[in-house]
Design a protein that fits this description.
Dihydrofolate Reductase, subunit A, 2 domains, three-stranded antiparallel β-sheet, 6 helices, 12 strands, globular, binds NADP nicotinamide-adenine-dinucleotide phosphate
Length: about 200
């Protein structure tokens, strides 16, 4: 084979090998189906600046009206996927599921039923249920277990940093290295506790 033709053949062969490795990687990547064909997956979460504590004894650590209002504004009209523990804590606080939003509860309990609520038993089932609504965003409503599992799929985080030391038993996962600050709001204070909203976007 003349030198030029040989070079052309071997570079095409290398390209072919690269293509099948990429296709192979996509085929064997278990997150592949979760990463495509859905609107942005986002999270709204309030946590302590020191250790990212989000809750204790299945309850929130802070009840700041302005923050609860912001949560409502950001999530309204979109589906919210939450763990069964967070859902139980919502029922304690509100006495009912979130209104104006499709509530999707993730549980391994095959018998779980709650009127007006959709139930999923896996992450991809939860995303498929949310996707069926044709939403602009899919919200992950917590708690710690769900934040940890869904974080790799999230494109945006709406964080409330609380400059407060609380003894939590549920924590938001470390995320700072994977996201950059998109917008920082001015510091605010409620009953002596300083807090700040910071929006993050995946790098
Ligand atoms: N600060 C905030 O912004 C914020 C927001 C939300 C929640 N929270 C706090 O977070 C805490 C609760 O968090 P948590 O981690 O204990 O509980 P969680 O994430 O709310 O719920 C965990 C439950 O979700 C189900 N689950 C988790 N992964 C699953 C999977 N892959 N497939 C099927 N089911 C799955 C299981 O339910 P089953 O046991 O029923 O099978 C599991 O026990 C509370 O303190 C709450 O107040 C804070």
């Amino acid at each position: 084979m003349p030198g030029g033709a040989y070079y052309e053949f071997s570079s095409k062969f290398v390209l072919f090998l690269a293509q099948i490795s990429v296709t192979g990687l996509a085929y064997f990547n278990p997150m592949e189906n979760l990463q495509h064909n859905h609107p942005p997956i986002v999270m709204v979460a309030g946590m302590s600046k020191g250790d990212r504590a989000i809750g204790k004894n299945n309850q929130l650590l802070w009840h700041v009206p302005a923050d609860l209002k912001r949560f409502k504004t950001l999530t309204m009209g979109n589906p919210i996927i939450m763990g069964s523990k967070t859902f139980a804590s919502i029922l304690q606080i509100l006495g009912k599921p979130f209104s104006g939003r499709t509530n999707i509860v993730l549980t391994r309990d095959q018998d779980f039923l709650y009127e007006g609520v959709k139930v999923a038993h896996s992450l991809d089932e939860a995303i498929a249920l949310a996707n069926a609504e044709n939403p602009t965003e899919i919200h992950i409503g917590g708690g710690a277990e769900l934040y940890r599992q869904f974080l790799p799929l999230v494109s945006r985080l709406y964080v409330t940093w609380y400059f407060d030391r609380k003894d939590g038993d549920a924590f938001f996962p470390e995320f700072e290295n994977e996201f950059f600050i998109e917008k920082e709001y001015p510091m605010e204070e409620y009953k002596g506790v300083a807090f700040q909203w910071v929006d993050y976007k995946r790098k």
